[in-house]
Amino acid sequence: MNLDQQVANATSPPIVYDQKYMNFVDTLLKESADEFEKERKFSESSLLKLYKLFGVTFERGLDLYERRRVTQISTSKIIIKEPCKSANEANWLIQVKGHSGALYTLFPETNYCTCDAFRYQVLKDRSAFTCKHVLAAWLASIDNEKLLHQQLMQKQFDSLLLYQVSYKHDAF
Length: 172
Description:
- The protein is 51% helix and 11% strand.
- It is an alpha+beta fold.
- The protein has one domain.
- The chain has a 4-stranded mixed sheet.
- The longest helix is centred in the N-terminal third of the chain and has 21 residues, at 19-39.
- The mean pLDDT is 81.
- GO terms for molecular function: zinc ion binding.
């Protein structure tokens, strides 16, 4: 079964996200990113597949991305494009300004957010795979044209990073 058929059959996400499902999500995200690199835009087909997989969560994440509400925070003067090695070695973070105006700080390439939707829909009842903030961050990390950038002094960045690590551990 090809990826299009798998997306068509994925009418509702499983309650328990097994490794096969996570691999499927990774494959779809990678395919969409590769297509963006070639075409310099997200195709209607990719957007439709992502909507089919994530539903209204994707629609809301797409809105945040299109409104340029995603900011990369680092000590660099420019946007860092290389992947992050691990949360323990993060040299950049992503902040997403939600529709309410609240700021959510995310670790790069990690499916985790401090928002209530993530806490309840992803972690507690497992009715969703991720939240709109994570999806907006993913979209903006692919399309650096809509990604804002904020440079911090190293001490400020370290404080923000330390706060995020302690908050992430306290949330569980």
